[in-house]
Amino acid sequence: MAVSLFDQFMSPTYLGVPLLVIALTLPWILYPSPSSRWLNNRLLTLQNWFINRYTHQILMPLNLGGHKWALILTSLMIFLITLNILGLLPYTFTPTTQLSLNLALAFPLWLATVLIGMRNQPTAALGHLLPEGTPTPLIPVLVVIETISLLIRPLALGVRLTANLTAGHLLMQLTSTAAFVLLSMMPMVAILTTILLFLLTLLEVAVAMIQAYVFVLLLSLYLQENV
Q1: Which SUPFAM superfamilies match (predicted)?
Q2: Which residue in 57, 132, 151, 215 has the most C-beta neighbors within 10 A?
């Protein structure tokens, strides 16, 4: 039973070729590109409104130096939201349930924020490792603790996204399996379970959007510390 539950998180292959690449390129095909009628296109208008609102929210706490990251942060947000929501469709694969993919997204971006801080303001960047007013005997211990907390940030980003999506998918599969099994034995309980599954699906749609937002928001906060 445990193996069948986690089979949905295995990367699918076709003729020995992993389909993860196709799953990662699909979101960019779904979004319409601007045309000569982009002002009259309702879908593009809605898309542009969402992007503008999100970019405003992300860049509001950042100074002008961090505004150079607007394109990559917004693109990453849309990319993650699309992958997470597409993974809720039946018989699909969610790439963001793979810890390796999430770490591949989190680690380079986190490292870029650290390198920017080391290049632009090395004193302030290193100053984060030692809080002001620390007693002298605690300085070595706090430096080690702050260094570990700094290095664990990309791991926390990847694990948070993976764990939340994996838990949601498991809950949906367990609830749907229970509804199917109970349908012949206790129809009323099966109907209640199906209603619960519907509500859980709505919750997972919200979680898919919120987790993508949190992922990028934390990256922007790391960037704010170093620009």
Answers
A1: F1F0 ATP synthase subunit A (SSF81336)
A2: 215
Domain ranges for the chain, please list them: 15-226
Rounded Cα gap, residues 127 and 211, in angstroms: 30
Helix, strand, coil % over all residues of the chain, rounded to 5: 80, 0, 20
Of 222, 218, 225, 221, whose CA–CA distance to 120 is shortest? 225
Which uninterrupted H or E stretch holds 207? helix 187-224
* Residue 210, phi then psi, degrees to nearest 5: -65, -40
Splitting the chain (227 residues) into consecutive groups of 10 residues, what average pLDDT does each group show? 58 72 79 65 78 84 81 89 87 84 92 88 78 78 86 92 89 87 86 91 92 91 84
Which residues make Cβ contacts (< 8 Å) with residue 103, sequence separation at least 6? 154, 155, 158
CB atoms within 10 A of CB 60: 8
Q: Please report how many Cα atoms fall inside a 13 Å half-sphere around the Cα of residue 98, on the Cβ side.
A: 17
Q: Are 58 and 216 in contact (CB under 8 A)?
A: yes
- For the chain, how long is the longest CA-to-CA vector? 70
Per DSSP bridges, beta strands 17-18 and 13-14 are: antiparallel
For the CA atoms of 78, 169, 91, 192, the dihedral, rounded to the nearest 10 degrees, stands at -120
Instruction: Give the count of alpha carbons within 13 A of 196, CB side only.
Output: 16
